[in-house]
């Protein structure tokens, strides 16, 4: 195998982060292979969002390293040089949050064409073509000219996914992309994520939906209090967790 195919797409080593006196990440190691789908589960406050945000450098780690396709994300650069570096890196990571942050004054199509036009210098026609095909893929071909305020939560979230995909990222990071949605809108968003999984998009998915995690993930990682307590194949984690903390979490979760 060549070096590129062996190198993990995302590699986090010894990630440490404190907010004041509170240690939120206590030495996280994580490796995601190209095309792999990793689900991160764990109680609220365990550091899942901080971990995802650190991968994207929306949070600055106190210690540890993040690599994207071999490139050190938190590189020891300063000022403008770091800004240039991080902007280039971020263009290769798509991120979808719980709360859709679409531009309200732009149409669906314009929301999707904006980044590739501005950041990749795509021509107007080319960008529109790309956006139209991505919106078709997420099932919104008939909504391209709508404004976000006219869309349901599930539709907005699908636009957010199309918008992230428009940059042709190397990895997609999802942070509870469906937890703010009405239950009947969850499936349509999960379906898009499953479709991406089938296309071998590399994905890190923070989720509270155990069933979905079990269906979509190659690996499940259970976090608690800033550490990775346990990780493994979904079947093993859900059916035969080795750690007591994992068992307790799943029991509570499944009882709820
Ligand atoms: P999760 O996503 O697993 O619910 P978070 O990563 O959001 O967990 O949060 C982990 C801990 O870090 C929580 O105790 C949270 O209150 C704290 N935290 C997160 N972000 C900040 C911040 N910007 N400032 C201070 N504390 C924070
Ligand atoms: Mg969170």
Task: Describe this protein's structure.
By secondary structure, the chain is an alpha/beta fold. It is built from 10 helices and 10 strands. The chain has helices at residues 3-6, 48-55, 79-90, 108-120, 124-137, 153-165, 183-198, 210-216, 234-239, 244-255, and strands at residues 10-19, 22-32, 37-41, 63-68, 71-72, 93-96, 171-175, 202-206, 219-224, 227-232. It has a 6-stranded mixed β-sheet with strand order 6-7-8-3-9-10, with helices on both faces. A 4-stranded antiparallel β-sheet has the order 2-1-4-5, with helices on one face. Strand 1 (10-19) and strand 2 form a beta hairpin. It starts with a helix and ends with a helix. The mean pLDDT is 95. The protein binds adenosine-5'-diphosphate and magnesium ion.
How would you state the average pLDDT, rounded? 95
Strand content: 15-25%
- Please, how many helices? 10
Number of strands: 10
In short:
This protein is of the alpha/beta class.
Search tags:
256 residues, alpha/beta, 6-stranded mixed β-sheet, 4-stranded antiparallel β-sheet, 10 helices, 23% strand, binds adenosine-5'-diphosphate, binds magnesium ion
Lay out the secondary structure.
Layout: H1 3-6, E1 10-19, E2 22-32, E3 37-41, H2 48-55, E4 63-68, E5 71-72, H3 79-90, E6 93-96, H4 108-120, H5 124-137, H6 153-165, E7 171-175, H7 183-198, E8 202-206, H8 210-216, E9 219-224, E10 227-232, H9 234-239, H10 244-255
Parallel strand pairs: 3-8, 3-9, 6-7, 7-8
Antiparallel strand pairs: 1-2, 1-4, 4-5, 9-10
The structure holds adenosine-5'-diphosphate and magnesium ion.
Adenosine-5'-diphosphate binds at residues 19, 24, 42, 44-50.
């Amino acid at each position: 195998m060549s070096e590129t195919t062996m190198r993990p797409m995302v590699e986090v080593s010894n990630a440490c982060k404190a907010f004041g006196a509170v240690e939120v990440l206590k030495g996280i190691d994580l490796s995601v292979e190209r095309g792999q789908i990793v689900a991160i589960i764990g109680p609220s406050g365990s550091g899942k969002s901080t971990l995802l945000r650190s991968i994207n450098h929306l949070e600055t780690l106190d210690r540890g390293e993040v690599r994207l396709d071999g490139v050190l994300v938190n590189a020891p650069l300063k000022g403008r040089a770091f800004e240039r570096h991080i902007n280039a890196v971020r263009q290769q990571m798509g991120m979808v949050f719980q709360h859709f942050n679409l531009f309200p004054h732009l149409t669906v199509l314009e929301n999707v064409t904006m980044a590739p036009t501005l950041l990749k210098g795509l021509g107007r026609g080319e960008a529109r073509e790309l956006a139209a095909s991505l919106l078709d893929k997420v099932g919104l071909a008939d909504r391209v000219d709508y404004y976000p305020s006219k869309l349901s939560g599930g539709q907005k979230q699908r636009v957010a996914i199309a918008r992230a995909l428009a940059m042709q990222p190397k990895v997609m990071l999802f942070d509870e992309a469906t937890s703010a949605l009405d239950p009947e809108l969850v499936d349509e968003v999960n379906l898009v994520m499953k479709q991406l999984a089938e296309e071998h998009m590399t994905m890190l998915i923070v989720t509270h939906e155990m069933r979905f995690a079990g269906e979509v993930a190659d690996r499940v990682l259970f976090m608690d209090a800033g550490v990775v307590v346990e990780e493994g194949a979904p079947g093993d984690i859900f059916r035969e967790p080795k750690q007591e903390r994992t068992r307790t979490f799943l029991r509570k979760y499944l009882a709820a």
